[in-house]
Amino acid sequence: MESKNIFGSVLCAVALIVSAAIISFGFKTIAKPDRTVSVRGLAEREVDADLAVWPLTYKIGSNYMSEIQSELNSKTAAVLEYLKGFGLDESDWTVQAPEITDNKLNPYLERRVFDYIAQGKVLVRSSKVQAVKKAQAGSLDLADKGIAVGQDYGQTVTYEFTKLNDIKPEMIAQATASARTAAEQFAHDSGSKVGKIKSATQGLFTIENAAAGLEEKKSVRVVTTVVYLLKD
User: How much is the pTM?
Assistant: First the structure.
């Protein structure tokens, strides 16, 4: 009787081991890992800037504060009249408060031509991009009226593209299509087919000048990363 119990226990143990092996093999067969391919898609587009910003500055020197005020008023009026000649109006500029330096208060300035130096500024901010570009290009004409327009860093025209949201959906679709083309080529080379998207990541949009000297043209670019399932 005891030997029969031992034999039965052995058979039971063997059956459990075989069952576990079969289940394990079957699970591995059913739950084999997905085959995927990760690719990147690029979309790039050249667009026109739709906003021009020009901090138009000019300086005035005098030994009398009363003359500073009068000269500022006169030259600011001349600047605004100049801008009107290019089709710009009050909605395209803001006359900002002048910056006045009292050279008499500077103990390190041994020689000075004027006691007071004032810098006037008209901030041009307009969607009339070409008009602003032409005005800035011809600004030396103001020298005939004794107005030297600043040309230093931070005083030239900058161009911006503000309508990115209008082209985002189409560019994302273009980048995704580019990624699928790359995935299909990979699948073809490996004897597979492209399945559904497993995951996708959109990169940041970048806006840069299209070329040096062509700042009013912008290059918009985005890269997406897409992971596709592969099937036989």
Answer: 0.76
